[in-house]
Amino acid sequence: MAVKMEKMDKSRVLLEITVEAEKVNAAYNRAAKQAGREINIPGFRKGKAPKHIIERYVGKDYLKDRAMEELIKPALLSAYQETEILPVSAPTVDIVQMEEDSDFIFKATVEVKPEVELGHYIGLELEKKTAEVTEDQVEQELKRRQELYAKLIPIEDGEVLDEDIVTIDYEGFIDDVPFEGGKGEDYELTIGSGTFIPGFEEQLKGSRPGQELDINVRFPDDYYNKDLAGKEAKFKVKVKAIKRKELAKLADEFAKDISEFDTLAELKEDIKKKLLQGMERSIENQYRLEVVQKAVDNASVEIPEGMIENRIDSMIQELQISMASQGIPKKYVDRYMKENNEKVRETYRAQAAESIKTELVLEAIAKKENITASDEDVAKEIEKMATQYGRSAEELKAAIESRGEMEWFKLGIVTEKTIDFLVNSSVKKDSTSQAANKEE
Predict the structure, then answer these.
(1) 163, 194 in Cβ contact below 8 A?
(2) Three-class SS of residue 217?
(3) Are strands 427-433 and 92-97 parallel, antiparallel or unpaired?
(4) Same domain for 413 and 347
(5) 339 and 267 assigned to the same domain
C-alpha cells in the first residue's frame, strides 16, 4: 500500500491511498462469494455459482461497492499509522480508481487535531479574593441546621400552611379523562417547594386532613410532555396528613443535641471555621479556572467542525442521561430531542468549542513544558482515589487497566499538573470576598 499526504490547512490533510491490485481482486472475489451465499440463482446451489454468473445477477457495481467497503477502513487505519496523524472525525472519501485487476486509488480528506499557537501563559496577573466570613453568614448556617434538625409534628386538626409537609393522594384529568403519569398515592409534598405544577401547592393551603378537593392548573407551555404542555388540567386530591416543622431554640442544648460541642458559642465558632475553609476552597477553584481561561484566551487555534460536532454529540448524550435520571420517560426524552435537535445543538456549540480549545491549549502547554505523569504520580493518584472509594489500590488499578482507561487516567493527572504549573507561576492580586458559602 502506498500513501501520499498533503497538508491542506492547520487542521486538515489530504491522503491519497493506493491499494495493490492483488488485494483488490481478493476483496472482489470475497464479495462475489458472499453475494452468492445470499441470493438464489437458478441451476446453482447457494454459494456454488461462478463469479461471472453472480456478477450478472447482482451487477458489477454492487460487487465493486462491497469490495471497497472491505478495503477502505483497514487502508485508512494503516495510512493513519504510517503518516502518524490523529483524526478527530470521520474522513470524506473520494474514489479515484476502482476496477478489478487494477490498483484501488482513493483520496481521503481528514480533519486532524489542530495546531495551537500559544500566547502568554507564564506569570499571568489575576485578582484573587481573600475569604472572610461574616456573622450574618454564620447565623444563616445556624438557621439551616435548625431546619435540618426540626421535629415534624402531626397536625390532626388544622389547616395546611406554607412549608408544611402534606401527604396526599391525587389523580389528574384533562377533559375528564385521566392522563398517564398523573396519579400518585401517599405522596409527601412540601408546600412552597415548587415541586408540582405552578398553582398546585398554593391551592392546597387552607385544606385539612381528610379533606378532598379539586385543584385546577395549567401545564407550562414548555412542559417536557408535549401532550400536556399548555393544557388545562384538574386534579382530584385527598389530604391524608399534615406535618409541621417545630424548630429547636438556638441555645446550648441545641448545640449538644446536633454536634460534639457543649455550647452554642463553640458550635458557632466551628461553623465559622468550616465556612471559611469552604470559601477558601471555592475561591481557589475559581482562581484556577480564571488562570486557565486567561491562558486559553491568549492562545489561538482553528477547531475543525467535525471535532465540535462530535463534542456536541457527547453533550447531548449527557443531557439525555440527565433527563432520564430525573424520571422523564424515554419516549418523552426522544420526542423532545427529535423536535428540538437543531436548537439544542446550536445552544451547545459555543460551549463545545470552548471546552475543546481549553483541552488543546492545556495539552500544548504540557507538551512545551514537558509536563508528564510519572509512575509515582499515577500510584499516588490511584492511592488517593482508592481511599475515597474504600477499595484497594491494586484493585482500582486493575479495573482502570482492564477498561483500557489508563491513558485517560494519565491525561487527567497531566492536566491537573499543568493547571498547577499555571497557578504557581501566576501573579496574585488580593481582594476581599464575603460571598455566602454553605458547609461542604
Answers:
(1) no
(2) strand
(3) unpaired
(4) yes
(5) yes
Q: Angle of helix 21-38 relative to helix 51-58, nearest 10 degrees?
A: 70
Q: How many CB atoms lie within 10 A of CB 269?
A: 13
Distance (Å, whole) CA 344 – CA 430 = 39
Residue 123 in grid coordinates: 506569570
pLDDT value, residue 431: 64
Q: What is the mean pLDDT for each group of 10 consecutive residues in the chain (440 residues)?
A: 90 94 93 84 77 83 92 95 90 93 94 93 93 95 93 93 95 94 94 93 95 95 88 96 94 94 96 96 95 97 92 93 88 87 93 96 96 94 92 92 92 96 90 46
Residue type, 342: E
CB neighbour list of residue 303: distance below 8 Å, 6 or more residues apart? 11, 114, 353, 356, 357, 360
Give the whole-angstrom CA distance, residue 105 versus residue 90: 18
**Alpha-carbon Rg for the chain in angstroms:** 33
Cell of 8: 491542506
Phi and psi torsions of 240, nearest 5°: -100, -30
Residue at 301 is within a domain: yes
Residue 167, beta-bridge partner list: 188, 241
CA–CA dist 369, 363 (Å, integer): 10
C-alpha–C-alpha distance, residues 204 and 237, integer Å: 9
Q: What is the distance between the alpha carbons of residues 304 and 301, in angstroms, rounded to a whole number? A: 9
pLDDT, residue 328, reads: 85
Based on the structure, what is the number of domains in the chain?
Answer: 3
Please check whether residues 214 and 183 belong to one and the same domain.
yes
Question: Do 409 and 378 touch, CB atoms closer than 8 A?
Answer: yes
Single out the residue of 272, 292, 440 nearest to residue 361, CA to CA.
292
The span from the CA of 397 to the CA of 383, in Å, is 9
- Domain encompassing residue 312: 256-433
Q: SS3 of 320, please? A: helix
Q: Would strands 125-131 and 151-154 be described as parallel, antiparallel, or unpaired?
A: unpaired
Do residues 304 and 389 share a domain?
yes
138 domain-assigned: no
**Cell matching residue 100:** 478489478
Q: Considering 211, 246, 281, which residue would you say is the last residue of a domain?
A: 246
State how far the alpha carbon of 427 is from the alpha carbons of 157, 282, 288, 291, 369, in Å: 65, 19, 12, 10, 19
Residue 388 sits in a domain whose CATH number is 1.10.3120.10
Tell me if 158 is assigned to some domain: yes
